[in-house]
Amino acid sequence: MKLRPLFILLLFVVSAVVLTWIYYAATHTHQVRNETPWRTTIADLDACCRRKHVKSMQYDHFASIADKEHRAHAARLFRALALSARLQEQNGMNAILRLGGSYLPPEKVLVFRGTTDGNLERSIAYELRTMQECKCGEINRALACDNRYAARLLIWASSVDMRQATLMHLCRAPQSSDTEWQYLVCPQCGNIFTSVYCEPYCPLCLTASQQFVRFE
Which of 28, 43, 110, 191 has its CA 20 to 30 A from that of 12? Predict the structure, then answer.
């Protein structure tokens, strides 16, 4: 009779140990499965943010060079591009923080000091090279771990990069010096438009065109 309480106590202890082990195994496995995808997505967002930070600094500098060369059209475009890059960097930083990461922009940025024509050429080459190197890998990785929020921001960044390269290519044309285009930037996603081909809503984030930031 005296062994029965000990047996019940032992059974209770064993049951508690088994339940604890099951709980630990389940939660530990869940963490292992989720840590790698989020870490990769955060790293991709961080790399995108750092690119956008460097580009915003470059474009601001290129705008000042264009002003000195009396290239008003190119100066307007570079200022719009700089704001677009800063907005995308801010969006990416917010996503990183929401996913539990941290973001620090580059402490030092080396800016080029060429002519406006050279700066346009250099910027177009950089955009095309970046798009070629990424090849939607960042977007695919975000989608693979079902992070649609991060994927959406990366899609925005990639789409705007292509549009920026196109606008710089048009600005590089000989007749562009006589162009009186104004540039508009969506304050939500950083998408960029011209006054000639401005849509009533941003096709990326559906922000109304009345809210766009205008560069005249």
Answer: 28
pTM: 0.79
Sole residue written with tokens 């995108």: 48
Tell me how far apart the alpha carbons of residues 149 and 72 are, in angstroms, rounded to a whole number. Answer: 37
Give the three-class secondary structure for 215: strand
Please, are residues 60 and 75 in contact by the beta-carbon 8 Å criterion? no
Spatial distance between the Cα atoms of 3 and 190, rounded to a whole number of angstroms: 75
Structure-derived torsion over alpha carbons of residues 143, 127, 95, 135, reported in degrees to the nearest 10: 10
Each residue of 90-140: pLDDT tens digit? Answer: 999 999 999 999 999 988 877 777 899 999 998 998 888 877 777 678 888
pLDDT band at 168 (very low <50, low <70, confident <90, very high): very high
Q: Which residues contact 183 (CB under 8 A, 6 or more apart)?
A: 76, 77, 79, 80, 167, 192, 193, 194, 195, 214, 215
Q: Is the dihedral of CA 94, 99, 104, 109 positive or negative?
A: negative
Q: How far apart are CA 168 and CA 38, in angstroms?
A: 35
Structural contact between residues 111 and 89, judged by C-beta atoms closer than 8 angstroms: no
